[in-house]
Write a structure and sequence with these properties.
Number of strands: 18
Number of helices: 4
Radius of gyration: 16 Å
Helix content: 10-25%
Structural class: alpha+beta
Strand order of the largest sheet: 13-18-14-15-16-17
Strand content: 25-35%
Order of helices and strands: EEEEEEEEEHEHHEEEEEEEEH
Distance between the termini: 30 Å
Largest sheet: 6 strands, antiparallel
Length: about 190
């Protein structure tokens, strides 16, 4: 039975079968194996599964809660950024693409962008302004922008993405990925 430590593009922490290729941290969110809060602090990071032989402890009392993402696009949509320790080169690329320095300032900006009170903040933007790697809400579901295509994301099955659909070229769409992470993608950060 899967644990409730998988993250959706909306940033929700749920249970589904896939383990994920990336790990995340939002502080200590659990009691036992139950998630009791959606975050604990503004530092939401994306980490590698293993770093210099160290593997994160899971479900230890008082320790941070290990979360898992299908890929970095999902982590970006949820509002996470690259870890400055285990992904230092990616963190530097992220800062360069964003044009900002300092984890505290970046995390404060991301926190404002990703949340509307306690709910996920969505942004309405023109289709033409969306870089590859952004997540949008289209036809009631999260979809990944990939070139001229949209890939529907789902927690079901072994593959997170369904068949490609054509990306609209005019109009606006609700964007799931926070504006700070969109700016990094537009600035040249590649997932």
């Amino acid at each position: 039975m899967p644990h409730q430590n998988r993250v959706t593009p909306y940033g929700e922490i749920v249970a589904f079968q896939r383990h994920g290729r990336w790990m995340g941290n939002r502080g200590s969110l659990h009691r036992g194996h139950d998630i009791v809060r959606p975050w604990n602090g503004k530092r939401w990071i994306t980490c590698v599964l293993e770093f210099k032989g160290w593997v994160a402890p899971q479900w230890e009392p008082g320790r941070w809660t290990a979360l898992f993402f299908d890929d970095e696009a999902v982590a970006f949509a949820a509002g996470h950024r690259p870890c400055a320790l285990c992904r230092h080169a990616d963190y530097v690329r992220y800062c360069d693409a964003l044009g900002m320095r300092g984890a505290d300032a970046i995390d404060a900006r991301l926190h404002r962008d990703r949340l509307d009170g306690r709910a996920k903040r969505l942004h309405s933007l023109p289709w033409a302004d969306l870089p590859d790697g952004a997540f949008v809400e289209h036809d009631g579901q999260p979809m990944l922008v990939s070139g001229g295509d949209l890939l529907a994301w789902s927690p079901a099955g072994p593959d997170p993405y369904g068949p490609a659909a054509e990306r609209p070229s005019v109009g606006e769409v609700s964007v799931i990925t926070p504006l700070t992470n969109l700016l990094a993608l537009r600035g040249g950060y590649r997932l």
